[in-house]
Amino acid sequence: MEKDADGFYTPKAVDAPAKPEGKEVEEPKPEVAEATPSKNTDLISSTFEVTVTLADQQADPNSPLFSVKSFEQLGLHQDLLKGLYALGFSKPSKIQERALPLLLANPPQNMIGQSQSGTGKTAAFVLTMLSRVDFSINKTQAVCLAPSRELARQIMSVVVAMGKFTPVQTEYAIKDNLPKDVSRMTAHIVVGTPGTMIDLLRRNVIDSSGIKVFVLDEADNMLDQDGLGEQTLRVKNLLSKAKPQIILFSATFPDHVRNFANKFAPQANKIELQKEELSVEGIRQFYMDCRDEEHKYDILVSLYQLLTIGQSIIFCQHRHTADRISQRMTAEGHKVASLHGAKNATERDTIIDSFREGREKVLITTNVIARGIDILQVNMVVNYDLPLMNERGNQHSNDARPDVETYIHRIGRTGRFGRKGISINFVHDKRTWSHMEEIENTLGKKIIRIETDDLDEMEEKMKKALK
Ligand SMILES: Nc1ncnc2c1ncn2[C@@H]1O[C@H](COP(=O)(O)OP(=O)(O)OP(=O)(O)O)[C@@H](O)[C@H]1O
Q1: Residue 145 region, left (φ>0) first, then alpha (ψ -120 to 50), else beta?
Q2: Peptide bond into 147 cis (omega under 30)
Q3: How far is the CA of 257 from the centre of ligand 1 (A)?
Q4: CATH dotted code for 283-390+398-465
Q5: 3-state DSSP call for residue 382?
Q6: Which amino acid residue places its CA nearest to atom 5 of ligand 1?
Q7: How much distance in Å is there from the Cα of 7 to the middle of ligand 1?
Q8: Where is the composition biased (Basic and acidic residues) (predicted)?
């Protein structure tokens, strides 16, 4: 793909002969000198000596990571191919293979894309934004919204990495992250959260007239009428004159949001998952039957060694629970961090960066990082409290029911891109037991019991699950 006279990256024809099932087809060589795909030897290992060869996963036609095409065949510009290869991406995943030709085709068409957690949706929309930007114009041309500052920062890191060989300029629209006294942003791509994005568009700091792409990551969450939906709609209205291509991606699209998504992104190309395809194969789900709340804490502490083999995320329903547990564990000499929405922006950035770098191995948190966060070393997720939500979007009300979508996203923080992972649910009474049963029935996937008083058995089961 070459830049055309106007400086755009125009996709070339993307039709390529399909690979016959079960047969190996030689990958075409990349067209660029320095853009050599690294051998897919992205191995992770832990004390359990787990090794995952992504190439094996990508060769299995039933895997969401399988693709018959190469990145070159998807019609990406050489500069972007270089960025992909520098990141160690050698072959697209299924969602990338299916979505990219539709996303890059002209005239641009809206997209509602669904694919399991950790299967590479970010690259699909980031490459689209980078492909559609005309770098010779210093004006904002793509905006992307995410539900948390942590996710917005992560998406930006992908934009910067994939755009490393392009002259892309980027800017954040997240709280406490704006350059002082900025009156006009000229960055090509702006990534942020809805509140700050509304502010910047309203004050004309972002000139909306040149915006060609509008992406919602975690779109079902961004469109939920009981949550961020109203703000997201305001952003859309502020962009409406520019008529951008609207791109919605998520691992989940519950029925009540899907109807709204169809209106939000009219005439969209759609890639959908069946209900039984929602959960990721590599994540083994367990539960532990605790006696009461206090026993949950004791069990968590007894798990500490296992939690620190790789990295772990512990999800609680309330901020005060996350704080209390982390304070108690810290006082007892364990090294844990806690992150939730009541902390200030600087603290939040420091905590997540430190966890990302592996300086802390256990992160105790709330739903704030249930979605999108991609830290490959996380091989265990604990639902200290199962996620709940009532019909009005209230997590804390007495009539709250199991929130299956949030459960899928939470456990999806492990088992990323073909890796193995473990999730453990703590249940401690009839109510929490029935909540877990409801999740199990909805997902059609067995959740296996681990005894709380047999650490050896626990370790054995976990080792097996991670193999
Ligand atoms: N084609 C590829 N080859 C190798 N690694 C890839 C490829 N595509 C994505 N990845 C890696 O896979 C991981 C998961 O990707 P990503 O975060 O985009 O998943 P996602 O589908 O957005 O998940 P979630 O639903 O949790 O947001 C990332 O570490 C990313 O770098």
Answers
A1: beta
A2: no
A3: 24
A4: 3.40.50.300
A5: strand
A6: 89
A7: 29
A8: 18-32
Ligand 1: which of 416, 419, 423 to mutate, most ligand atoms within 8 Å of CB?
A: 416
Query: Is domain 50-277 annotated with CATH 3.40.50.300?
Result: yes
Tokens 């395809």 found at: 277
Which distant-in-sequence residues (6+ apart) come within 8 Å of 192 by Cβ? 143, 144, 145, 146, 152, 172, 173, 174, 200
State the average pLDDT over residues 185-191.
97
How many Å lie between the centroid of ligand 1 and the Cα of residue 360?
A: 22
Q: Is 52 exposed, middle or buried (0-12, 13-18, 19+ CB in 10 A)?
A: buried
Tell whether the model's pLDDT for residue 161 goes beyond 60: yes
C-alpha atoms less than 13 angstroms from C-alpha of 191 in its C-beta half-sphere: 24
> Ligand 1 centroid to 118 CA: how many Å?
5
Question: Which atom of ligand 1 is least distant from the CA of 95?
Answer: 21
Sequence ranges of the chain with CATH classification 3.40.50.300: 50-277, 283-390+398-465
Determine the pLDDT at residue 403: 95
* Tokens found for residue 158: 């992908």
User: Which protein residues touch ligand 1 with a CB less than 6 Å away?
Assistant: 89, 91-93, 96, 115, 117-123, 251, 372, 374, 376, 412, 416-417
CA nearest to 240, candidates 268, 193, 201: 201
Q: How far is the CA of 177 from the centre of ligand 1 (A)?
A: 25
Asked if this assembly's ipTM is beyond 0.90, the reply is yes
Nearest CA to ligand 1 atom 8: 120
CB 361 within 8 A of CB 306: no
